[in-house]
Amino acid sequence: MPMATMSTKLFVTGGAGFIGSAFIRLLLDRDDATEITNFDALTYAGNLDNLQDLDPERHHFIRGNITDREAVQAALGDGTQAIINFAAESHVDRSILSADEFLRTNILGTQVLLDAARERGVNRFLQVSTDEIMGSLLEDETAYFTESSAFAPNSPYAASKAAAEHLVRAAHHTFGLDTIITRCGNNYGPRQFPEKFLPLAVSNALNDQSIPIYGDGRNVRDWIYVDDHCRAILLALEKGRSGEVFNIGARNERRNIEVAESVLDALGKPHSLLRFVKDRPGHDRRYAIDPTLAEAELGWAPIETWESGLRKTISWYQENARWVERTRSGAYQTYYEQQYGTEVTS
Ligand SMILES: NC(=O)c1ccc[n+]([C@@H]2O[C@H](COP(=O)([O-])OP(=O)(O)OC[C@H]3O[C@@H](n4cnc5c(N)ncnc54)[C@H](O)[C@@H]3O)[C@@H](O)[C@H]2O)c1
After folding, report:
1. For residue 80, what is the domain's CATH number?
2. 116: CA distance to ligand 1 center in Å?
3. Would 233 be classed as within a structural domain?
4. Is 13 in the pocket of ligand 1 (CB under 6 A)?
5. pLDDT tens-digit series, residues 253-262
6. How far is CA 86 from CA 11, 21, 62, 125, in A?
7. What is the CA radius of gyration of the chain?
8. Catalytic residue at 157?
9. Domain housing 144
């Protein structure tokens, strides 16, 4: 799908969240010819502060829920070239506490968007998915997730994202909808809601609060800087062949304990801030992505190293204390206390 020659109209869902807002920023910075409708329900994870500096001529925000057919139809302008679906309930721990909203948004919402794409003749549908749909690899093996790895989701979140992928696949196979699926690992970078592990570690360390580590801390995740992920999504949107799936990973496996220690070291804080807590039920041991297809076919490679990405991330949280303060209030306080048994005092 060649873009950026004439005016391109894109419909981005979940664009007030962490990755969606980074994607919009990247796209608007890259060319002058793209107009984006950003459709987001503004759940606890959606944040208009993430969109403050965007050009209002080319970025149109509409508050709406992807499960609401009429609202989606009304917001989807004529001549929309692509839908990029970031909207989701995205936190595994919350899905363990209650799965309802995950099923509604991640599964039913995706189907509503697929139907709308078909009915309105949208050229392409890109589903932002996750490596978690493929379950867990063993800690010490050298296996990697490929595009043909079996589905084996282990959390309600992962199961809902797996179901969404099946629906996207079905829309392609049954109705010929032009679809792309991208699956990536753990993103990190600016504007990530501080319930997720890395921003939680950074913001707690900045406040000299302990960092909760699940279980023995040896669970492995494959970390990717958010802008590198977004550049891969853009390339997949432009160059991917209809029906393709791409695994996006920066070949950057890290144990949780190592991630937390890197944060503490970067901030000059003591390792005594690490606090081991009861493990997450069903906690996947290791995720590791083989990104060979994306590298070969899309010509994608990450720009940031772990060190440079982490430095940028930590600096952003240091410089945006007010953003952190605002997100760590109200419902977040209650959630944190329920989860870790400690009150957030900042
Ligand atoms: N963060 C990661 O490390 C990661 C890794 C792999 C895949 N993903 C996927 O990337 C996407 C974006 O993740 P994120 O980390 O930016 O999530 P996020 O939680 O920061 O943002 C999600 C956004 O979706 C919006 N949203 C939620 N329910 C909605 C609904 N029903 N209708 C409209 N908008 C709704 C929220 O308001 C929020 O702005 C998700 O689909 C997630 O599954 C994330």
Report:
1. 3.40.50.720
2. 20
3. yes
4. yes
5. 999 999 999 9
6. 10, 10, 15, 11
7. 19
8. yes
9. 8-190+222-252+283-304
